[in-house]
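Just curious: can you write a single protein's sequence together with how it folds?
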Amino acid sequence: MLRIPNNPKGYCLLPLLLLACLIAQSSSLGSFRLGRHVNGFLGGPSKIATLQQSMDVEDLWFEQRLDHLQPDDTRTWQQRYFVNDAFYRNDSHAPVFLMIGGEGEATKKWMHEGAWVRYAEHFGALCIQLEHRFYGKSHPTSDLSTSNLAYLSSEQALADLANFVTTMKTKYNMDAKQKWIAFGGSYPGSLAAWAREKYPHLIDGSISSSGPLLAQVDFSQYFEVVKSSLASYKPECVEAVTRGIAQVEILLKHMIGQRNLDEKFKTCTPLKDSIENQLDISNLFENIAGNFAGVVQYNKDNSPHANITIDEICDVMLNTTMGPPVTRLAAVNDMLLKQSESKCLDYKYEKMIADMKNVSWDSEAAKGMRQWTYQTCTEFGFYQTSENKSDTFGDRFGVDFFIRQCMDIFSERMDGKFLEQAVAQTNKYYGALKPATTQVLYVHGSIDPWHALGLYVSPNANTPTIYIEGTAHCANMYEPVNSDPPQLKAARNKILKYLAKLLDGYASFASFT
């Protein structure tokens, strides 16, 4: 079997990012912002403890170029990657499965768990995971200053992948017949599709899970899917949330009501001190809405994020014995505070901005939120807005609220016009929802709000899709368990058959269960 040795001389000398965790006594960044969990969109492969989780995986390092877009720039840095060769047949046809890292620390558990590892067993594949630049321990620069973040982009990340694949093919004398298949979920799901599009001579096929292909500044559809997902349990749940949000608005109008909200929602600072600060109040409402969004996005996935379900929060919202809807809304907030191990709800806008402006690799924001926010401000938008007063989550966090954050955190030039131009450029460069590439399978779940920006209905046979009813974000990627719904099991079998097609039927296999 292939053994890829570590390179001690290539060890990253920059300060290492502390292990991402949920413990935050009163973090203004919260555990769920911009549709992203504190540990990244994907997190670990399973919330169930197994023997595989204790298996150690070695940190390996690859010398990567800092700027692929400037041929004369010779600066380099050390990029982290992992390898599992336990199933590798090491012959001229054995495939290489490449898991693309995303907007969080690359997780070693994925090297022994997750559906892609089960596919590797079938096909005798070598498994490699490459951490995304500027996330986890892959530090291209000394800090996260805005000038340094200029080297953070999806285009640079894809060039990293291309350089990595080219070097690995040569370094380990891989046969030209050996096919590389890219895997990714959420933003890395987009990267998996785009890697095939931009580097078809290196990436022979991709499984793109829950990947948004359409960049969009005002992602208003996000909360539309959140509402429909809540309603899929019981329509009355949405009605109760709507009434709860309306009652928060009423209570905010009076000092006694403000004190009532402080007590119910365990605010870190009194609302009376912020009642004239619209940014604080916008942040408060976005936090409350985010409680529901985070639960919906990972509903019943076999992932560490999915500890609370739509059923549970809707049962709370429909429990009239607890009191009026605003009290039930606060009870849901309690559930999420407890899950994130936070003592209070920190809604102060300036504190959030101050935390986000910390450029140190050791800061809380460096666990991915500062970097991901930068990418939304310069490439994607993806802002989950609510700006209709009569809608469920009200009108307190429209698109201007998020554009303001780009300007306050990074640069005054990142205004609405800048964002519209950046998003238009992204869609032009990658093709948005009309990809020209082939040999990519797009997988989405109906519960997942991100499917609204993805390719989930197949326009033709060259862009096949799998749309899994009743599943959420990246559900097909997690470690399979017997309790998985039949449609999820069927989707994994379809993915396995598609891989067999990509690999020209290489290796015999049984049904994937």
User: Anything to note?
Assistant: The CA atoms of residues 262 and 344 lie 10 Å apart.
